[in-house]
Design goal:
Layout: H1 8-15, H2 19-26, H3 34-44, H4 48-66, H5 70-82, H6 85-91, H7 100-111, H8 119-129, H9 140-154, H10 164-172, H11 174-178, H12 183-193, E1 197-200, E2 211-216, E3 219-224, H13 231-247, E4 255-258, H14 267-279, H15 282-288, H16 298-308, H17 312-321
Parallel strand pairs: 1-3
Antiparallel strand pairs: 2-3, 2-4
């Protein structure tokens, strides 16, 4: 074109194609077709094969330049099959980087490992998952990743030494906090004074967790995922996890991860559910509203709340949990519980959602 002094408009007119079409060829947005190769051969006094060879050689060179080494593919397979990398980047748990070396370094720091090798999950943790409700419910590796993040984030909080007797006493008065102004904050502060760490960490994709309880250097930790951001869900989850701390966690069972809606229940989960229901006065609620469940009114719920000194949302939650009411009704008396939890206890992931 330069030798002949042609501009794009002129060559496009000669070839009988649009300027946009020619521009796409020049910018390598589309290959040279056989028909256009023939036209170019006439225009520039060459053979059609000349243009097809040029185009094919160029594309082969580009393909070789862009080819990803096998080792890079293997590393990415190892990472993406064991961890929800995309979701972790979205949540800010990992940098949103395309540099593999940076990603590998961050993953090693995340797990505290020297080599990019994940067999330790299968060797050290897989037997423990059998004692957790998450086993066989979703990816063990994804669950392990969430659990590791919870362990890492727990280091951000300081509490006095754990006092079991004080926690037991606090647990017996849990419903008192449900009706107080700022009761959630007060209860979290009391948990901390008992030596129990509490924080909110969202679940990862394919894990569907509601909460967790685990021990870290003899310190009990309660995690709420706010999967359902309802007040009744918060109180039931916290009560359920406290039950695990008081009854179940030990050296053989250092953690329990909970999925209330989808997971199958084992003996430990059934017991924790019964304890949580008892502490949240499910039995008393059912007895009080026994004659009203078929035509339950808001005023009747408020009356029950006042008499039993329990938040109205817990009443609706208790009825739904005991299959006396549809889960659709759980929107009653339920605001976003995250707005009631002090920000220092909520992981930054929620601000990135």
């Amino acid at each position: 074109m330069e030798i002949r002094g042609w501009v794009q408009e002129e060559l496009a007119d000669i070839l009988g194609i649009s300027v946009k079409h020619l521009s796409s060829i020049l910018l390598d947005k589309q290959p040279i077709s056989i028909e256009n190769a023939r036209k170019l051969a006439i225009a520039f006094n060459t053979s059609a094969q000349y243009w097809l060879n040029l185009d094919n050689d160029y594309r082969l060179w580009m393909e070789e330049e862009a080819q990803v080494p096998i080792s890079v593919v293997e590393d990415k397979v190892s990472l993406y099959s064991r961890m929800p990398i995309r979701d972790m980047m979205k949540k800010g748990w990992l940098s949103n980087t395309k540099e593999l070396e940076v990603l590998i370094k961050e993953v090693k720091n995340f797990w505290g490992i020297q080599d990019l090798e994940f067999s330790f999950i299968d060797k050290e943790w897989l037997p423990l998952w059998k004692k957790s409700q998450v086993y066989n419910q979703f990816s063990v590796s994804y669950a392990a990743t969430w659990y590791q993040m919870a362990r890492n984030f727990s280091q951000s909080f300081n509490t006095p030494p754990y006092r079991k007797e004080k926690l037991e006493q606090l647990f017996t008065h849990i419903t008192d906090f449900t009706t107080r102004n700022d009761g959630i904050k007060q209860f979290i502060d009391e948990l901390n004074s008992c030596g129990v760490k509490f924080f909110v960490l969202p679940h990862l994709e394919k894990t569907y967790l509601d909460g967790a309880a685990f021990l870290l250097k003899d310190t009990p930790i309660v995690v709420y995922t706010a999967r359902y951001k309802r007040i009744d869900n918060f109180w039931f989850t916290v009560a359920h996890e406290i039950a695990h701390i008081l009854r179940h966690l030990n050296e053989k069972i250092p953690f329990v991860l909970d999925n209330f809606r989808e997971g199958s229940h084992d003996k430990l989960e059934d017991e924790a559910n019964k304890i949580a229901a008892r502490q949240l006065k499910h039995k008393e609620i059912l007895a009080f509203l026994e004659s009203s469940t078929n035509y339950l009114s808001v005023s009747r719920v408020k009356e029950c709340s006042k008499v039993l000194n329990v938040h109205p949302s817990i009443i609706i939650g208790a009825l739904a949990f005991n299959k006396k009411l549809s889960y659709r009704n759980q929107s009653l008396f339920n605001e976003d519980v995250l707005e009631l939890i002090p920000g220092q206890f909520i992981h930054d992931s929620f601000s990135k959602a």
